[in-house]
Amino acid sequence: MPNKILIIFAxxxxxxxxxxxxxxxxxxxxxxxTFHDLYQEYPEFDIDLKREQELLMLHDIIIWHHPMYxxxxxxxxxxxxxxxxxxxxxxxxxxxALKDKILxxxxxxxxxxxxxxxxxxxxxxxxQLLEPFNQTAKVCNMxxxxxxxxxxxxxxxREVYEEExxxxxxxxxxxxxxxxxxxxxxxxxxxxxxxxxxxx
Length: 200
Hints:
Layout: E1 5-9, H1 18-25, E2 33-37, H2 38-41, H3 49-57, E3 61-67, H4 75-84, E4 102-108, H5 126-129, H6 131-139, E5 143-144, E6 148-150, H7 158-177, H8 182-185, H9 191-198
Parallel strand pairs: 1-2, 1-3, 3-4, 4-5, 4-6
Helix pairs in contact: 1-7
């Protein structure tokens, strides 16, 4: 049985993002992959709690796809997390709705990879900066994967946007149709690096 994937996409300036446009354009057309654009669906931030929870229940793999905004996520995704991951449903003694679902963050950032370290301009690794999301997933009994990160988007040549889009297409096809060796994957800080070993 193929995995059902829900891509929860949040970008308040999507029309200005060449990198995200390329990634989204290469999402496979599959009945098992749902693309859900929060800013398109909820321009007034009036999130439909029940609809979002129903969507989550219908999928095995949840992807939070967004740009890095001040070392976090855009405000609508934060509001989505605050509202949808409800006590007694997503967490707490009775909150088991998301148990064992997989969560992957797909992040775009203008910063170069070498900036994200103790001696770099951003001082912390991407994994360290995303730790609140990791902990959120753990509280909700989800399996949080190392992030898939597209770095350097502000200085990326046009042809590299397309290469990144094609890689995203391959990644989603893999997640849809293959299992993940978690013990192997957790040896990597980036999903990208693990996935490249699967393409050899």
